[in-house]
């Protein structure tokens, strides 16, 4: 029988691992294996505690992940966070073609393959005798080092040539340069990033890849419709807690608490409203907004999207991405708009790319619906003036 | 952001003319697709279409980082320094080119001069101290520099002698990313 009473830390990680396995086994066949004294909740609490211990997460984050996944998937997810995602590169179609690039890199002894059916420009690098970020082809701008997941929002945005596009949080420019490649260097892109230091890398990448239709600026994204508006499409890759990219930055495991998540969520809501306001609904070709984060927290994804749906006249449309899991329409006590199933979620364990969330909006009208509270107050004032007369 | 003054225009075009012929500089300004212009912003010269330039005008001077393509910058002494970011416009119009062998690519991209032993090909009739574009053997532009020897002199130069002085190369995207803009 599994001993779960002592809450003391076993000194050995192997023991913790064993206990995790045992607990999972018990939960798998609860009726037969359980200790009749213990409730299911006790086992779950113990499992969560042990997992947090074994994989070095804080309790808050582990609680969040257990809410998102069932036990089997949770373990897969945690394991996937321990290994790095494969190195992927994107061909810069402004300067090269995928076949030519692949040949040039193979000549340098790089072992690579197309990334998958869904992308015509992505390549996956298995191993390379030369640093892949410093080959002459890289320096000449024939490709960009870019995660598979960060190609998805650009494909969802599907910018057309001669459009006016805003990339709100653009550094270091992987998505911006992909947008430019899809637009064939025509039209105009405004690439914004609030951080001046990161703007340097952004500018260098834009020049390296031969993108000429871009304005780089470092405004606060929330200022946006005030400075320039009337865009055909806006991409908002919002700053987030980074819970989808734990394999890249393991510090997220221990330093993110509820306050951080909610702070991110708040900024994201503000930025998303700015992004929506910056789009011209009457644009003949566009009127689309793509919102994406590298977080898998519901607070930063569905919640933010649902908020925007309530505050602006926008609707969700299909992202046009062939794969990915549907977004949540309900999560614990929260109920979201039913169209949230059109959004897409990506997980490290399922798609072998960074955890990611993509939503695509179509703007319906440039009018901003008044908040209900404000509306009531105005109506009351009108009634009041009438009674005066 | 402002248009270049007469003096700045002169310095700038004189520098450009070292790499591309004056007719081709004209081609940069009179383009069939849209009207393009050169503008000065924070001592740097940017080349962009009029439409992009006008939108860039909306941003505060402090917040605007770059627009279109940066060609280079004016130094404090009033000279013009061409950046490797201009390479995309220089390379197709270049009159004189130097091709380096694959074994010399790395060395040039680390900021070294081109040696005779690394020289693959050189445009005929290149004179001494002429601005040249440095290409790899597969015609990928790698940077630019100044020829240290004329084509004739190159033929009988000793293998370790310098044939092209390094001025800028695409390796600077990694080495000097911070000071680019």
Task: Set down the secondary structure blueprint.
The complex is a heterodimer of chains A (389) and B (181).
Chain A: H1 13-28, H2 30-33, H3 40-55, H4 59-68, H5 71-82, E1 87-91, H6 98-107, E2 111-114, E3 122-127, H7 136-139, E4 143-145, H8 152-157, E5 164-167, H9 174-182, E6 188-192, H10 196-208, E7 214-217, H11 224-227, E8 233-237, H12 252-255, H13 258-278, E9 288-293, H14 302-311, E10 314-317, E11 325-326, E12 330-331, E13 334-335, E14 344-346, H15 348-351, E15 356-363, H16 372-388
Parallel strand pairs in A: 5-6, 5-8, 6-7, 8-9
Antiparallel strand pairs in A: 1-3, 1-4, 2-3, 9-15, 10-15, 11-14, 12-13, 14-15
Helix pairs in contact in A: 1-3, 3-4, 13-14
Chain B: H1 6-16, H2 22-29, E1 36-41, E2 44-49, H3 50-56, E3 64-67, E4 69-74, E5 80-82, H4 87-93, E6 97-100, H5 102-109, E7 114-115, E8 119-122, E9 131-136, E10 141-147, H6 151-155, E11 162-169, H7 172-175, H8 177-180
Parallel strand pairs in B: 6-9
Antiparallel strand pairs in B: 1-2, 2-4, 4-5, 6-8, 7-11, 9-10, 10-11
Domain SAM-dependent MTase RsmB/NOP-type (chain A): 77-364
Subcellular location (chain A): Nucleus, Nucleolus
GO cellular component, one term (chain A): nucleolus
Shape of chain B: elongated
**What is the fold named in CATH at topology level of the largest domain in chain A?**
Rossmann fold
What does the radius of gyration of chain B come to?
A: 17 Å
| Spatial shape of chain A | globular
As for the number of domains of chain A, it is 3
Descriptors for this entry?
heterodimer; A: 389 residues; alpha/beta; Alpha-Beta Plaits; 9-stranded mixed β-sheet; 4-stranded antiparallel β-sheet; 16 helices; 15 strands; B: 181 residues; alpha+beta; Nuclear Transport Factor 2, Chain: A; Archaeosine Trna-guanine Transglycosylase, Chain: A, domain 4; 6-stranded mixed β-sheet; 30% helix; UPF0113_PUA (chain B); RNA-binding (chain B); ribosome biogenesis (chain B); PUA-like_sf (chain B); Ribosomal_synth_fac_NIP7 (chain B)
């Amino acid at each position: 029988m599994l001993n779960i009473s002592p809450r003391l830390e076993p000194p050995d990680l192997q023991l913790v691992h064993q206990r995790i396995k045992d607990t999972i086994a018990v939960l798998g066949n609860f009726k037969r294996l359980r200790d009749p004294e213990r409730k299911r909740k006790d086992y779950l609490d113990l499992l969560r505690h042990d997992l947090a211990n074994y994989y070095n997460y804080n309790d808050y984050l582990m609680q969040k992940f257990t809410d998102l996944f069932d036990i089997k998937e949770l373990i897969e997810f945690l394991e996937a966070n321990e290994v790095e995602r494969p190195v992927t590169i994107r061909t810069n179609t402004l300067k090269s073609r995928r076949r030519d690039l692949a040949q040039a890199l193979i000549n340098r002894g790089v072992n690579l393959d197309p990334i998958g059916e869904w992308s015509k420009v992505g390549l996956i690098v298995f191993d390379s005798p030369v640093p892949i970020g410093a080959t002459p082809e890289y320096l000449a701008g024939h490709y960009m080092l870019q995660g598979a997941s960060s190609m998805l929002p650009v494909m969802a945005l599907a910018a057309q040539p001669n459009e006016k596009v805003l990339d709100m949080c653009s550094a270091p420019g992987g998505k911006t340069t992909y947008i430019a490649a899809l637009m064939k260097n025509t039209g105009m892109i405004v690439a914004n990033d609030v951080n001046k230091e990161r703007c340097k890398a952004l500018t260098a990448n834009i020049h390296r890849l031969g993108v000429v239709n871009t304005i780089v600026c470092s405004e606060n994204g929330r200022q946006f419709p005030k400075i320039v508006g009337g865009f055909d499409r806006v991409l908002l890759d919002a700053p987030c807690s980074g819970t989808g990219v734990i394999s890249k930055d393991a510090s997220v495991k221990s330093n993110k608490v509820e306050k951080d998540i909610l702070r991110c969520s708040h900024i994201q809501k503000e930025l998303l409203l700015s992004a929506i306001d910056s789009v011209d609904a009457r644009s003949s070709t566009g009127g689309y907004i793509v919102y994406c984060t590298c977080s898998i927290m519901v607070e930063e994804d569905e919640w933010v999207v649902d908020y925007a749906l309530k505050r602006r006249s926008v609707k969700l449309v299909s992202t046009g991405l062939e794969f990915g899991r549907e977004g949540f329409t309900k999560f614990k006590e929260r109920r979201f708009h039913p169209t949230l199933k059109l959004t897409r979620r990506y997980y490290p364990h399922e798609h072998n790319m960074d955890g990611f969330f993509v939503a695509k909006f179509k703007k319906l009208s440039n009018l901003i619906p008044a908040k209900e509270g404000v509306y009531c107050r105005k109506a009351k004032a009108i009634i009041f003036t009438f009674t005066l007369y | 952001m402002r248009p270049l003054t007469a003096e700045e225009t002169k310095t700038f075009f004189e520098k450009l003319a070292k790499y591309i012929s004056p007719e081709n500089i004209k081609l940069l300004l009179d383009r069939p697709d849209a009207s393009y212009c050169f503008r000065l912003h924070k001592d740097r010269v940017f080349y962009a279409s009029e439409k992009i330039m006008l939108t860039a005008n909306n941003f505060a001077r402090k917040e605007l980082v770059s627009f279109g393509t940066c060609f280079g910058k004016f130094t404090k002494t009033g000279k013009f320094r061409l950046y490797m970011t201009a390479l995309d416009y220089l390379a197709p119009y270049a009159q004189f080119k130097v091709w380096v062998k694959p074994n010399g690519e790395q060395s040039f991209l680390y900021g070294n001069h081109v040696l005779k032993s690394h020289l693959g090909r050189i445009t005929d009739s290149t004179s001494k101290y002429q601005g040249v574009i440095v290409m790899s053997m597969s015609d990928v532009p790698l940077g630019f520099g100044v020829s240290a020897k004329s084509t004739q002199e190159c033929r009988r130069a000793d293998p370790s002698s310098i044939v092209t002085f390094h001025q800028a190369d695409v390796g600077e995207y990694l080495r000097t990313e911070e000071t680019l803009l």
